[in-house]
Structure formats: structure tokens, C-alpha cells
Design a protein that fits this description.
By secondary structure, the chain is of the alpha+beta class. It has a single domain (3-95), classed as Alpha-Beta Complex (tt1808, chain A), CATH 3.90.1570.10. 30% of the residues lie in helices and 30% in strands. The chain has helices spanning 18-37, 66-69, 94-99; strands at 3-6, 9-12, 41-45, 49-52, 55-57, 61-65, 78-79, 84-86. The protein has a three-stranded antiparallel sheet. A hairpin with a 2-residue loop joins strand 4 and strand 5. The longest helix is centred in the N-terminal third of the chain and has 20 residues, at 18-37. The two termini are 20 Å apart.
Length: 100
């Protein structure tokens, strides 16, 4: 179940629609390939929980440069602010995604 902790509330998300996961998958493959070929870092998708100030989020796609990524542990579940974040917007979540 995808959930985020935002401003003291647990926000549950519905499953991703086909167009959403296709865009996420394509961007992930493109950025991951580029990052891997150049040894720049790692890319994570959807289930990567990041802690930002008071809130915890699961963005659609995150990138961590090598310096941060090398410090991660194999069983780590909560991650620091990424170097790059992508949130795929949809009509049903546009206001929330652009707001909070």
C-alpha cells in the first residue's frame, strides 16, 4: 500500500494507472541507464520513502548521487532528501501534487 505522512496525516494512494506507471518506468530506465554508464548514482521509483522536514513522501522517481548513495545500508527503509525528484502529475492528483 502506498502511503505518505504529510502534515500529521497519513495519506493513502490508489494504485497507479497504466499511463502513470509507463511514464515512470520509461523515465526510470532512461535516467538509470545514464547514471549507471557514467557511475553517477542510483535511481529509485515509487516505494522509496524520503524524509523531508516534518513529512515523509514516496515520490514517483528519485535520484541519489554516488556520494549519498554509497552511504545507504542494504536494509534501509527511510532515505534523506534526494538530489533529484520527479512526480508524475495526473488530473486526479494535480492540485495535491502541485500544492503540498
Amino acid at each position: 500500500m502506498k502511503a505518505e505522512f504529510i502534515n500529521g496525516d497519513v495519506i493513502l494512494h490508489s494504485p497507479a494507472k497504466r499511463n502513470h506507471w509507463k511514464v515512470t518506468d520509461l523515465l526510470s530506465r532512461l535516467i538509470s541507464t545514464y547514471a549507471e554508464v557514467r557511475s553517477l548514482g542510483i535511481v529509485g521509483t515509487e516505494k522509496v520513502m524520503i524524509a523531508l522536514s516534518r513529512n515523509d513522501y514516496e515520490p514517483d522517481l528519485v535520484f541519489y548521487g554516488k556520494e549519498k548513495a554509497d552511504k545507504f545500508e542494504s536494509n534501509q527503509m527511510l532515505f534523506p532528501a534526494p538530489d533529484f525528484i520527479v512526480e508524475i502529475l495526473s488530473k486526479s492528483t494535480y492540485k495535491k501534487d502541485k500544492g503540498v
